[in-house]
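Can't paste images in this forum, so I'm doing it all in text. The chain is below; anyone willing to post the predicted structure tokens underneath?
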Amino acid sequence: MKYFLVVLGLVCCLWYSFFIDEPKQTVAVTVTVQAGDTLEEIIYDLKETYDDQRDWREICAQAEKDNAFSRFILPGQHIIFNMEPSGK
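Text version of the structure:
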């Protein structure tokens, strides 16, 4: 019984290790807002440049949290976006 529990524990550990996500590689990109820019346009350009597969709203929410700003941006404002390039 003791060996069975040890083997079961090892199997569970191995099983769990297959499902652990690898840490995502991010690239911090600083953007200076220009007159007429919108968050959506900036993020779509960055998504295309860095081939980030996330939805633009997810990137926007993360940028708002990281930079402590609201939905309104002003020309000259510096915003840091953490992009997750795909590994292609």
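Residues 2-17 form the longest helix (16 residues). The two ends are 48 Å apart (CA to CA).
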